[in-house]
Amino acid sequence: MRVQELRRPAPIESNPLTLASRPVPSPGPGEVLLRIVATGVCHTDLHIAEGELPPRRDVVVPGHQVVGLVEQVGPGGDLVQGQRVGVTWLFRSCGQCAACRRGEENLCPEARFTGYDVDGGYAEFMCADARFVYPIPQRFSAAEAAPLLCAGIIGYRALRKADVTPGERVGLFGFGASAHLAIQVAVHWGCEVFVFTHSAGHRALAVELGAAWTGSADDRPPRPLDRAILFAPAGALIPQALAALRPGGTLAINAVYLDRIPEMEYGLLYGERTLRSVSNLTPQDAREFLILAAAIPVRTEVERFSLEEANAALQKLKRRQIKGAAVLAIAT
Fold first, then answer.
1. Is the whole model's pTM more than 0.70, yes or no?
2. Are the beta carbons of 290 and 136 closer than 8 angstroms?
3. Among 193, 254, 273, 280, which one is least packed by beta carbons within 10 Å?
4. In whole angstroms, what is the distance from residue 294 CA to residue 140 CA?
5. Which one, of 80, 68, 71, lies nearest residue 36 by Cα?
6. Between the CA of residue 270 and those of 157, 163, 234, 267, what are the distances in Å?
7. What is the fold of 2-149+281-329?
8. CA angle (172 as vertex; 171, 176 as ends), nearest 5
């Protein structure tokens, strides 16, 4: 099978992913072998490729927004051959620690992550833990569904962690793959959404998806925000987002990597404003969001690339030239 391997992190401009050939893996107990149809390209993949997230393996196949067909079921598995399922960033958790018992598998100290701790979806086949794969709603094609599996689910969790309730005024700072899905949930909940981005193309898409106002991060919104989510991995935006929040509001940082948290005046946080992080996702988040996404229905804006073009897709993502989400179309 063909895979894209990361053997040594390096600037994405140097094409650190290498196309290679490997044997098709065999599923172990409780696992399934998937024939991959499409894999989303995520900013987390870029952080892994460039070493901003420190390597955990000598060689890894990235990719954690995976749509595939069950090719083979390992011992003890109960999925059906040919079933279409999705794999997320959370590959597995221990299921026994206090965090897992609370339903916070994302905080499990033994959690393992797809395309980072284990080989992921920049490949024609992969093995997955059968407990951590999810049925894909029929209304979505594989390419449309792939971004839902990280960008969509983590955007949904970010809305929840920002304490968003229906009808509130919500600010989204940065408007990439995750934000263009989160806005649709917020609009479905009757929220008034303000989008902050320097990209004219992203502003146009935000308006098309229901934004009430768009501007750059340097602009002050016409009215104070009840809640805000920072999608860009740029800590310098934290003071600007807090300055736009009303007293008692919440800012959630939806980033697995952040360049820094800047020094700032306490007055920006004072007034019982809340600043919190969003860490990964849980199986419950995945199940809830996929049902909600199909019911809305969420529209995914997708730019397709081949497996051979994985470096090019990440380069374009880094330059913020992707409208919506990038997807590797691997099989028909």
1. yes
2. yes
3. 273
4. 8
5. 68
6. 25, 18, 22, 5
7. Quinone Oxidoreductase; Chain A, domain 1 (3.90.180)
8. 165
